Amino acid sequence: MSNQTYHEILERIFTAYPMYHKVGSAAYKEGLENIEALLEIIGNPQRKLRCVHVAGTNGKGSVSSFLSSYFQELGYKTGLFTSPHLVDFRERIRINGEMITEEKVLEFFDKYQEKFQHLEPSFFEITTALAFHYFAEQKVDFAVIEVGLGGRLDSTNVITPLLSVITNISLEHTQLLGNTIAKIAFEKAGIIKNKVPVVIGEYHPESFPVFEDVALKHDAPLFPANVNYEYSNHEGRLDIYDKETHEKVYSLYTPFRAHYQDKNILTFFQAAKVLEFVLNIQEDKIGQAVENMQVNTGLTGRWQVLSENPRILCDVGHNYACLQNSMTNIYEERPSADSKIHVVFGMVNDKDIDHILPLLRKEFTYYVCRAHIERAMDQEKLAAKMRKQGLSCETYPSVKEAIEAAKAAAKEEDVVFITGSCFVVGEALSLFNGYGL
Prior knowledge:
Blueprint: H1 6-16, H2 20-23, H3 33-41, E1 51-55, H4 60-73, E2 78-81, E3 93-95, E4 98-99, H5 102-116, H6 123-137, E5 142-146, E6 163-166, H7 174-177, H8 181-188, E7 198-200, H9 208-217, E8 222-224, H10 225-228, E9 229-234, E10 237-242, E11 248-253, H11 260-278, H12 286-291, H13 293-297, E12 304-307, E13 311-314, H14 320-329, E14 341-345, H15 353-356, E15 365-369, H16 379-388, E16 392-396, H17 399-409, E17 415-419, H18 422-432
Parallel strand pairs: 1-5, 1-6, 2-5, 6-7, 7-8, 13-17, 14-15, 14-17, 15-16
Antiparallel strand pairs: 2-3, 3-4, 9-10, 10-11, 12-13
Helix pairs in contact: 3-6, 4-11
């Protein structure tokens, strides 16, 4: 063991390895040769794992967490690999909800860092290798693996899973994945493997034929969740119906405030039904998995209430489809019709901002800020674009100052909503977890 501390190692890997989370497309490495070479050095731990692989534009982190919770409720030791992290790097790698220890991160880099140097790996490749190594070392029963970006050429796409899941498709990362729904669907469909069943969360007329074609070529059974099922939510009771017969097939309690989780639960429900068949699971733990998901997995940043009077909540939704939902859902958080909504808002500079800004409601007040990363968009530049849309906004050089201004302006019956970027939400969570707000 070297004399390096965990924090020194963390600083070194953040600096040394290109990190998409921080700098964008400059950190993206296309192809699987590098990750395959990394994994060869550490003994190909991914071959020892029984996995579920989850891709998609939105909801893949939540669906991955529901699946992890499901395996945990069944009594299995379960690894969960997700990205990005919001506050702590170790959020990415968990077993039964517990983050990887600092000691295990340090041990891995002490042992392998020099052996990796000639490959010049990306941050995500290194992190993927660490996750597979840790899960294999700890002998997990199952591992739920979330795709980082795309699917076909993503570093996680070296596994042959028990089940593949693709939540949905919308335009994202067009400079890397393609500028049409069909092109992006082809990249996501790259996780489909020979004879491995695949669940598709949401039907889209441009993406579904792509999935059908790829699944047919791989002889992979295809299960489209919202073609097979429909749902209704009444005061937290989610009823799921067979879409053909309209008969109720399942009912569960959902503790989630945001309606978008209903779609994610439906995707998870279809995935769980397939797993019941593939693994011959006799116990029904679907309802418990949903109800206990946050406790089981530690998922944060999804329509999360941070404080009351005024109500302050955050959500990591940062693309067109997410913000479209947010701008509707946020009205339901108002205690009264007179409550005003204050939005702490920041974005990264590689998003299609001109496409997204028309979604923002003119009746809200915006506190525009810049997260503390290279990739964040300058608050003055963003505010100028927002004002052209007729939005009322003031600018702040930091997330902290924007939140403080929104809190000061809000009355007890108002709502403060923090969104627009994972980084803005991550900084907000840090601030509310004991650092002065």
